[in-house]
Amino acid sequence: MPKVSKRKIIDKVLIMFGVVATIALLVIGGLAWWAYSFTSSNVYNELASQKIFFPPKGSPELANPKIGPYLDQYAGEQLLTGPQARAYANHFIAVHLSEVANGQTYAQVSAESLANPSNVQLKQESQTLFQGETLRGLLLGDAYAFSTVGQIARIVAIVCFVAGGVMAILVLLGLGHLATT
C-alpha cells in the first residue's frame, strides 16, 4: 500500500473545505437573492396598488422649499419604490402634517380632543393627524424599511456569489495541484 504524504492529506482536506464553502456561499447567495426579489416585488406591488402619485412638475405643491427640493426628481411619477416612499413620507406628508394643529402630533391633539369632546375642530385635526401619521408610518416602516432590507440582501447575494466563484476557482486549482503532486 503506497504511503500518502501529509501534503496530499492537507490538500484533500482543504479541497473538501473549499467544496463545502463554495456550496454554502452559493446557497446563501441564492437565498439572499430570493429575499431581495421577494421584498422588491412585494414593495412594488403594494405601492402600485395604492396609486399614489407625486405632484406634477411645476405644481404649487412642489414650490414649497420644504417639499420641492426633495420631490422634484419624482414629479408626476407614481410612487413605486422604497426611496420614493421615504421622500413622500418625510417631505410631503410630514410637511403637510406639520401645518395641522400648529405642528402638534396626533398624540398631543388626541389627548386634547379627549379632554374636550365637544370641540369639533380638535376631533377633525386628531382624525387628520391619525390618518396622515399612519400613512407616513406605513410608507416608512413597510415600504422603505423592507426596500432597504431587500437592497442589503441583494448586496449579500452578490458578495456570496463572487466569494463562491472565487472558492470554486480555488477548489479547481487545489484539484490541479493534488493531481500533479
Break the fold down into its secondary structure elements and pairings.
Blueprint: H1 6-50, H2 68-71, H3 82-98, H4 106-115, H5 120-180
Helix pairs in contact: 1-5, 3-5, 4-5
Describe it for me?
By secondary structure, the chain is an all-alpha fold. The chain has one domain. The protein is built from five helices and no strands. It has helices at residues 6-50, 68-71, 82-98, 106-115, 120-180. The radius of gyration is 28 Å and the shape is elongated. The mean pLDDT is 94.
What keyword list fits this structure?
76% helix; mainly alpha; elongated; 181 residues
Main sheet properties: none
Q: Please provide the count of β strands.
A: 0
Shape annotation? elongated
How far apart the termini lie comes to 17 Å
Oligomer: single chain
Total individual domains: 1
Mean pLDDT: 94
Radius of gyration equals 28 Å
Question: Beta-strand level of the residues, as a percent range?
Answer: under 5%
- Distinct helical segment count: 5
Low-confidence stretches: none
Q: Look at the helices and sheets and give the structural class.
A: mainly alpha
* Sequence of secondary-structure elements: HHHHH
Specify the helix fraction band: over 70%
